Amino acid sequence: MNDSTLDSTPGNWWQRLTGGLKRSSSALGGAISELVAKRKLDEATIVEIEDVLIRADLGLDIAARVADVLADGRYHAEISPEEVKTVVAAEVEKALVDVARPLAIDATKKPFVILVVGVNGSGKTTTIGKLAAKLRADGRSVMLAAGDTFRAAAIDQLKIWSERTGAAFMAREAGADAAGLVFDALRAAKERGTDVLLIDTAGRLQNRTELMEELQKIVRVMKKVDPAAPHAVLLVLDATVGQNALSQVDIFTKTVGVTGLAMTKLDGTARGGILVAIAEKFSVPVHFIGVGESVDDLAPFSARDFARAIAGVDSNLGAQPNAR
User: Fold this and answer.
1) pTM score of the predicted model
2) How far apart are CA 219 and CA 229, in angstroms?
């Protein structure tokens, strides 16, 4: 096979996922329990449940669909919090199943170039390091390019990841031209027959036009070495920014053609539902989610696992991170 997908199946993933999404599921589940406990389902209750889902950043469409399902033949009937959570999980899974796609690495492209973008503080460099570790564990040769030339700390951090994972490393001094660094890295990776080139970039606010233009320049320059590059553009999103993530997906997609998402820091927010709203609005593939600091806390995205974890529904299936 020429194409393969990055996969990871640590046995305790379900525990880490539910633990990482505890703030989101507790906020959502607590509000639902408070609404429906010792109360029959009526129109007012359904409206309140819909409001809870919207406040949890799940999006208007999901909230409306859950309300429709609950209203269908259940008026004036007693309903348990668990039943409502099950409905929420089912509708969230439906919304996510089409975007839950592994990152496919085409082995015929050497190097397979992954450009990693995002705003300041989203976790790009750490995500690159974790991804490099997974690729190396899969037996692939990897090069890391320190395209965030604005911050010496980012260059140092990426170098540490290269040493930790056994990946090759390409950098210039802080303040150097990022596009020139990327050009040299891609040429070197091609000469060495490297399997995957991961390119870090400077964090940039999506409303800073000049910084977004520099990102476009990086893409133009790499195409001089390989017209098909980048083969993937991974946007790293910080879940704690909530609704602001929607504008980030919009602008970065228009600027450099985002092909997939990695959402980090889900363990640091009660608003992890924003991933559902993003999927509903943009239909961009979600490759990875991060629920902690360790390498294994970045895992391939599963619609079913995420839906059940955020809704607070127990999994009896021994869920794995690549389950679809």
Assistant:
1) 0.90
2) 8
